[in-house]
Amino acid sequence: MDSGQLRGVVALDGPSGTGKSTVARQLAVGYTARYLDTGAMYRAATLAVLRAEAPLDDPAAVTEVVTAADLRVGTDPSHPTVALDGEDVSAEIRGPEVTGAVSAVSAVPTVRTRLVGHQRSLIREALSTVGGVVVEGRDIGTEVVPDAGLKVFLTASVEVRARRRSVQDSAAGRRATLTATQADVERRDTLDSTRAVAPLRAAPDAVEVDTSDLDVSGVLSRLRELVEQRELLADTATGGTR
């Protein structure tokens, strides 16, 4: 457990394979904060679209499905949950079918407007109940919480990110060659960084952290330094901010 309790929002952005989810969850646990994985919300929305067999190139049809879907993303970092229409879909949303379609669904402006509103509601709830939240995604510092107390943009080489994705997929029983995984990572990078609405990019005031040569402990150490520097911790012993 880290010393102190998070006060405010830590926004972690970056492409796939930079370690966002792992470090975001651990940072939130250590600081007794909430955790929000916005990517999981878009993946659940994508699963709803796939199940409805709506055409990915029809924004109106995609929006209709997402609007009707009951998407619920839990904010407990120790036990994050993702549900679609009451069903736990935490594992299914990480599969190749969803991964291949999520960029198309998340690029629909009306879908982003709806889900960003939901994300902001969960963030407000977290701040009002426990006081702090770590939010990860691709547009947190630029669109979702532009006034976050700390914005961090995580990066890593495409080769490193592909290897990490391959390890995760193997552990989850998903099989793909390293070459195919790297091609998918590069495809996602291009789609996410060139979409018209809320493209993947670092906020002007974000701190960039390259995780290529850092393990999880190394990234967490750097993030804790930044949290301390921004004075986002309340001393649980005194109740004051430090």
UniProtKB/TrEMBL annotation:
<keyword id="KW-0067">ATP-binding</keyword>
<dbReference type="InterPro" id="IPR027417">
    <property type="entry name" value="P-loop_NTPase"/>
</dbReference>
<keyword id="KW-0418">Kinase</keyword>
<comment type="similarity">
    <text>Belongs to the cytidylate kinase family. Type 1 subfamily.</text>
</comment>
<keyword id="KW-0808">Transferase</keyword>
<keyword id="KW-0963">Cytoplasm</keyword>
<dbReference type="Pfam" id="PF02224">
    <property type="entry name" value="Cytidylate_kin"/>
</dbReference>
<dbReference type="GO" id="GO:0016301">
    <property type="term" value="F:kinase activity"/>
</dbReference>
<dbReference type="InterPro" id="IPR003136">
    <property type="entry name" value="Cytidylate_kin"/>
</dbReference>
<keyword id="KW-0547">Nucleotide-binding</keyword>
<feature type="domain" description="Cytidylate kinase">
    <location>
        <begin position="10"/>
        <end position="228"/>
    </location>
</feature>
<feature type="binding site">
    <location>
        <begin position="14"/>
        <end position="22"/>
    </location>
    <ligand>
        <name>ATP</name>
    </ligand>
</feature>
<protein>
    <recommendedName>
        <fullName>Cytidylate kinase</fullName>
        <ecNumber>2.7.4.25</ecNumber>
    </recommendedName>
</protein>
<dbReference type="InterPro" id="IPR011994">
    <property type="entry name" value="Cytidylate_kinase_dom"/>
</dbReference>
